[in-house]
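This is your field. Have a critical look at the following sequence-structure pair:

***
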Amino acid sequence: MPIRTRPQMTLETRAKLIMLARDAFGRQGYAGVALNELTSAAGLSRGALYHHFESKLGLFEAVVDQMDDALDDAVERATLDAGGGWRGFREGCRAYLRAMLTPDMQRIMLRDAPAVIPNFANRPRMQLCTAQMVASLEALMGRAVIRRADPGALTNLIAGATTSAAAWAATRPDPASALDAVGEALDRLLDGLELDQG
């Protein structure tokens, strides 16, 4: 049996804590999670948790970072699978909405993270996503695929509407049906940007 190195054990402990925390935050919300219960489930001391994450907020931010990674991957995969361009952009928006179907995404990313993480909407990761979206829309305008508008304003309008609508759908009695309705409404909005290619 191979001997695990200290860095391997550290990574395994972090991964275990993040996995347990994601489940707990997803079910109970940020305020409802007691660190003692989390460390007990992980078979660790509270001191070990603080060694890896410094605080409950630090652990929560690590969970959000992991969820952001998965969300970015889903959007990028959908964009590429659709062949990029305008169709890819639209499919990326749809992939974001599909990701929001899971209860832990709804609870953590749509409700708790904006309320708990300081300056959540303006963190570096969000600024990078915004810059990429601006560049995509500028390129589409440059190729006369969509109507011209201020790309920064358009990016914030589309991203804001999509995120707000996903948060709204998460509060409906049937979130899946509500998200389908949001996707259809988003399509109608994006249809209005498209230029006739004929």
In short: The chain has one domain: 6-191.
